[in-house]
Each structure stands twice: as structure tokens, then as C-alpha cells.
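Researcher: I'm preparing a figure for a lab meeting and need a structural model of a single chain. I don't have an experimental structure, so a prediction will have to do for now. The sequence is pasted below. Please return the structure as C-alpha cells so I can convert it later.
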Amino acid sequence: MFKVSPLFGDHAILPIGKELRIFGAADEGEVIRAKITAADGTVTGEGAATARDGRFLIHLPQQKLGAGPFTLTLTSDAMTWTASDLLTGWVFMAGGQSNMEWGLWNARGGQEVIKIHDDPNLRYFNVPRVSALDEKGRAAHDAAHWQKIEPHVGGDMSAVAYFFACELRRKVGFPVGIIGCNWGGTSILSWMDEVAMNRCVPAMKAAEEYERSIEGITLEAWQEKQDAFQAEMDEWNGKVAKIKETDPDIEWAEIEKRAGVCPWHPPIGPGSPYRPGQLHRSMVESIVPAALTGILFYQGESDVERAEVYGDLLINLVIRWRELFGDGSLPFYNVQLPMHIDAGAQDDHRWAILRQQQEKAWHALRNSELAVLIDGGEYGNIHPVDKNTPGERLARLFMENFTHHQPEQVWAVRKSTQGNVLTVELTGPVEARRGEPDLFEVAGEDGVYVPAKAELDWNRIHLTAEGVAHPVKARYAWVNYAKVHVFSPYAPHLPLAPFVLED
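Model: Understood. Here is the structure written out cell by cell.
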């Protein structure tokens, strides 16, 4: 007997331009045959595989756009399985932590959209958020399924991915499928497998430290503590929600004064989603090695304390995911963290460091893009309700690549110094909007940064600072949180990307 991954069940979207890989569980040695049939009855692909180590993988040829809906049929000597209403289009995995997990029903305008949206060619599949593959976790995976966007359906879809998909649907009309694989509060380490972590010293050390810390803790003991923690956390969140209803701008210290100290962090243990590698095992592996059009990623908030090494972690994650998904050039579309600071907190620049590390990974990885969101974010709120902007910017990056269009985002590319003026050259023009250009800094040979006056000169910025006779370094938006005022003069008026120019 065999069991097909629910990723290929009714209403699935199959990626165009990609070899199809159909997989699942089966008895050892069982021969499974697959056939895909177009709407007119034409068989458009056939294949077979013999199960090994309890798994099977069948390769089918690429399918054409618009020939569906397709039917997928798998047979063995013991049984037949069929999935119907399959379409071909673009398929993206939406990975990361809470800002990618954030459901449409909680996003700005989401409740209104959910009531009326109706697009059967936009579909989503949420990988169950389980951290342990016990009986309950396996049952959740078995129950996972594709859903079509229709009125009152889709509130649990990633809002960022939803707006991304809607933008693609508007621009080209192709069917779009989103595979949600995300979990709030998780480090990038949770999504790396052992191979990826062993290639990266900071990840390997973090994993070894975690494993030492949970020695002797059973899964049952952890689950008992986890249940108690979740109940306490839910109660605390309820108190905070009521407080913010009447005082939305309240600072963190006052929140904890009224609601009590936040009970975070969750207990460590063998079943924790925050255990390095855990969500790779319990979530990512369930969709490997599916063919994908690309990966959307919004993560990093939980890694600001290890920001200096985040670039290496991200590079290793992407390289390993490309290996596992069988596509060495699989496009990776990342969201650079927006502005954020807890109300009343001191700016320690940790978010700025992590943004720089995200840019480092972008430069190091081919077929990688970085959606700049430096003009986004909310003071005191790590979960901005505007999910439309990151979704649209991810879609813009994808469409720029699809149409080979000149990128619209403005980046700093080089610097030069003449006397007391340091000039930054950009990839495009900028102008000041909604305020004077600020957040620029320069440093001399001593490396001490001071605020700089900025003169915007189309695709150049001239920086000077009192007391710095010969500036040799420059940076922009080196803060956790601030309002930015420098944008492209052309619609959609993207912000100048943050930069550090020191070499």
C-alpha cells in the first residue's frame, strides 16, 4: 500500500517549466505507476518507481500552461489513487517566521478582502505547524490540503504571500500556488538540517550547545512544560491585547507593569520548534523534493542577537535548500527587515547589522533578490499590519526577473572622497520626500561615525560632516528604527536601500 503526499492532492498547483516529482510513502519494493491526464483526455506524462526505505519518487515531464485541469492517477497492484482539478502555474514556498506566518485575517484590510475575494486560480497549501512527528503530528500532515481562494476562505494564508500572489495574478494571469512553511518566533537554525549546520561553524556550535542543554529531557516532560507555557503565554497575550485596545502606543515597560513580565521564552526540549533543525525535520522534509518556481522568505527577527553571523547562516540555508529541492538555481526572494524598536527601548543597531547581513547573502547568492522594506515597520510593533507592501515588492522583484526588466530598487554601489566631501554613487536617482535627507553618517580614518549633511545630486549623494576633514567611510540608516525620507523619484517611489561603504 502507498500513500501520496497531500501536496499532490485535489486542487494542487503544479509548477510550469519544471520536471514534476511525485512522492510519498510505500511498502518496501512496491511498484507505483503515475499518469497525468489533461482536460481533453490526453495523457501528458507517465512514470513509475519502486519504493525504497519506505519512500517512492516518480519523475514526470514538464506540463504546459493552460492544458488543465489535470488529473493525476497513481496505481500499484494493491490500489489506485486519484487527484483531480490540478492546474499548472507558478508555485512558491513561503518560509520564515511570524511576519510570513501572519494570516490574512490579521493584516490591514484582510477582513474586508476575505469576504469578497474569489479567485479559484490562486491556491494555497499550509504545511502543518508541528514540531514533533508523533501520532498527532503525522495526522496533521495527512490532513493537509490545497484550498482555493474564495469568499470566507484564506484567512489562514500568509498575508505577505497572498498579496504577492495577487500581484502576479493581476500582471500575468497565471495560476499561482503558495506552499506556506513558516512558524512564528523561530530562528533560522530551526529550518536548517544537519548538513547545512555542519557546513557553518556558528550553526554547528549553536546546535551542539542546544543538544547539551536538553540532555535527559524526555519528549513527554517537554510537552508537559510546553502546554503549561502556552497556557500562560495565551493568558498574558490576552491581557496585553485588552491593554492595547485603550492604549495602543503604550511602551513595553508599562505593558509589563500592568500585565506582568512576559513569560517568553518557551521551554527547551527535544520537541521544541526552536531546537536547531527541528522544523526542517517536522515540516520542510514533508515537501522535499517538490519542484518549485521559487522561495519567498521573511525571517531574521529572532536572530538579531547573532546578527553578525546571520549572512553565513542564510547563505548555507539557501544552498542546502536548493540541493534538497533538486534545483541549484532555485530563485530565492528575501525580505530585508523593516524598521523596528520596542517602545521605550534604546537603539542598539542590531536590526541594522542583520539588514547588512541579509544584503551580504544577497550579493553572495546567485538567483537571489532582496526586497527592501526600510520605509516600513511600526514603532513598538514587531508585526506590522501592512503586509501588502512586502508582498507587492516581492512580486515586483519576481516580475523584473521574469521580464528581464531593469531593477527599480536604488542601491549604493561605490564611494569616492575629494577633500572633505565623500560622494556615494547610486544605481539610480533619488530625491527627498516627506522630510529632509537624514540618517547619513561618515567616518574618517579613525572609524568613528558622525552624522553627515547630505546633498542629493540625482544618482549621487555628497556627504560632509563637521570635524571630519577626510571622510573615507559612509553608512545610511544604521538604526533599528527611524523614518526615512530618501526615495526614488519614479513610481512606485522605492526607498533608498540602507548601506555601509567601508572598503
